[in-house]
Write a structure and sequence with these properties.
Aspartate Aminotransferase, domain 2; Aspartate Aminotransferase, domain 1; 2 domains; five-stranded mixed beta sheet; 12 strands; about 35% helix
């Protein structure tokens, strides 16, 4: 019996993918949108009909993710929001859903609009109140995000899975499959914006869903919706994603180590009021994160600086190594004054969201140290 491979091995070998035609150790890029039939009109490859649902590059990337997630099935989408939309579109009109509040604003905004159009009863609940809501409210679907963006709240996945018969969907983007396995904790579906750390190079837009119940009606509906709606990741993007995932465990390990060290430094600085990071013992979700995350706590954190908006913008403007840009999980460190981007969401004006990359930690700390000086 073949020994089960560890994530670092699965990723480095792209789940065993090679190019059989050339013998290359790197999978080939196949951009064709249609596939040949013989003189009897039989397909040369029965699994390849048309690129809207058939792509070797797509399957290769899905296989890597499936194995990293320890899932039974995995589906890639052209963005994280496309993956989320595919899940919610399985709901019938009039259904009830429970959604964690204070998560990625793009998710919240889309779900609110969708629920209003479809007469869906939407209950938005803070992370601390999710368990009670799941125990007392009827819902077809529960959607959570842990650690959350930008508040870094952690949710006990196993407790929620036991509290309700609803389909539990977990956005685990900030954790990646390397640090957390929601399916093993009882989630029905795990979702990632693969644009972030899974790709990690800020050059691919993608989303992914995985499950351990591919026979479930909701998964069949999601698969059908993806095909008929044309929500398919292109072959080049899938190829890039496979290439990037070969270093995913190394990148996540380095980013998590850097983030832990930077968070500790910032928490002790007199120009910082607080740091939201699940790897810090004072964080309200620290104990939950310890139970359900392994190998680190990810690259994302939020920092509350002293002095309000003016000082926050001054600090962000003085940072030299951290790039001022929207996203997270890339090899390069990014910083964002979140209130400038989303003033309508109640984000404090002194909150700075930070995505920590793989640079030398001494350089990252030195950059913040000089930026915080009065």
């Amino acid at each position: 019996m073949t020994r089960a491979r560890k994530p670092a091995t699965i990723a480095a070998h792209a789940a065993g993918t090679i190019d059989p035609q050339s013998g290359g150790v790197v999978p080939a890029l196949q951009p064709s949108t249609t596939y040949l039939r013989d003189e009897n009109y039989a397909l040369i490859r029965p699994d390849n009909i048309y690129a809207r649902d058939n792509s070797d590059n797509l399957r290769q990337a899905e296989t890597v993710l499936q194995r990293l997630e320890n899932a039974q099935d995995t589906l890639l989408f052209p963005s994280g929001m496309a993956a989320i939309a595919a899940v919610f579109r399985t709901l019938p009109n009039g259904a009830g859903v429970i959604v964690q509040s204070g998560i990625y604003w793009g998710t919240t905004q889309w779900v609110r609009d969708f629920s209003a159009r479809r007469d869906i009863t939407l209950t938005e609940v803070d992370a601390d109140d999710l368990l009670s809501a799941c125990q007392t409210r009827q819902a077809a679907l529960v959607f959570i995000e842990t650690p959350s963006n930008p508040w870094l709240k952690t949710v006990d996945i196993a407790a929620l899975a036991q509290a309700s018969d609803a389909t539990l969907v977990v956005d685990a983007t900030a954790a990646t499959p390397i640090l957390m396995q929601p399916l093993a904790l009882g989630a029905d579906i795990v979702m990632h914006s693969a644009t972030k750390a899974i790709n990690g190079h800020s050059d691919v837009l993608a989303g992914v869903l995985s499950t351990n119940a591919p026979e479930a009606r909701i998964w069949d509906d999601i698969r059908t919706d993806r095909k008929t709606a044309g929500a398919i990741l292109g072959p080049f993007e899938a190829w890039l994603l496979t290439r990037a995932m070969r270093t995913l465990p190394l990148r996540v390990e380095r980013m998590s180590q850097n983030a832990q060290a930077l968070a500790t430094f910032l928490l002790g600085h007199d120009q910082v009021e607080d740091v939201f990071y699940p790897g810090l013992p004072h964080h309200p979700g620290y104990e939950i994160a310890q139970r359900q995350m392994s190998g680190g706590y990810g690259s994302l954190m939020s920092v509350l600086v002293t002095g309000g908006r003016e000082n926050a913008l001054r600090i962000v403007g003085r940072l030299q190594l951290f790039l001022r840009a929207t996203s997270l999980g890339g090899v390069e460190s990014l910083v964002e004054h979140r209130h400038t981007i989303e003033p309508h969401t109640g984000i404090p004006e002194n909150l700075i969201r930070v995505s920590v990359g793989i640079e030398d930690i001494s350089d990252l700390i030195a950059d913040w140290d000089q930026a915080l000086k009065r």
